[in-house]
Write the structure tokens for this entry.
Amino acid sequence: MRILYGVQATGNGHITRARALAPLLAKGGAQVDYLFSGREPDRLFDMAVFGDYQCRKGLTFVTRAGRICYLPTLMQADFRQLMRDVKSLDLQQYDLVVTDFEPITAWAAKRAGKPSVAIGHQYAFARDVPKAANGLLASTILRYMAPARIELGVHWHHFDQAVLPPIIEPHAHNSPMANRVLVYLPFEDGLEVMSLLQQQQGYYFHFFSPELMPGVYANVQVHALSRDGFAEQLALAESVFCNAGFELASEALALGRKILVKPVRGQMEQVSNAVALQQLGYGWQMPTLDAAYLSRWLREAKAVQINYPDVAGYLAQWLCQGAHEPVAQMAQKLWSEDSVILKSTAAAGRAQKIEQKESVKIA
């Protein structure tokens, strides 16, 4: 099986998902080439697992102070280059194209009539899952950004829909250190976040920032972006304060960490994620940076832990065997495993405890 795997690199979550699948696909005998778009190549890090990967410009969003700026996004988008990349991508040698919300590989596969599979959280929004109110532009982006013949949405809960549990990299399950908080807010103003954190006495923050100089600033230690360093601090943290992307919250749930999300304003996926976390009782949301609300969360929030199944292993095998099993059947099996168990008194009565096969009714 020869696979071309496209990854939207604007957010680290897409890369994290591909990183979890990469060694398993290789172990399953697949020959996989990777293509990343949406980020400058020199801003990618810890990419050795992907071998001799390709980069393209693709599409990305312009954000300022925690809000998506749609007009600058459209003005900086190079649609001519995008179409040139789609038309020039040679798929003749590949049996299957996989896309994680990456438009070049998705549209090249559609143009060439190649079998294609989309994997990602965005595809869950085609189902009846919690969604924030969204405009025409957001709906259009989700629908047409990176389509595929088979679309696999992933989410924290099944909501009686044909979506899969999260794809999570293995982590060391260390005992967390009290009052230690991992912070990752790449779409916010770093200095504003720093000021917010320094107001919280009695807590120690490990802040991963793409813009601030690494160092110790009172009760805040700033780190450069590093996958290994990030995983180490996540294993030690008691709590996670982040934007409302999908993957980091998934990892925090698997480890049993308290979660506070600040969604990127105007980003339908992130606002919807914040709604889902709050509805399920899995975490708290903060629409704007607010010192008093942060203090309350630090004092009052309770951790939720969910033992999700090995979705990466299942999907890797499914892809290596030609992606034939129906999506609804896969979802039924994965959510029905005894290992999918919610552990939290805080979420009791708001989120379903999933233990027995008959409790899951996938539509």
Residues 345-359 have pLDDT under 50 and may be disordered.
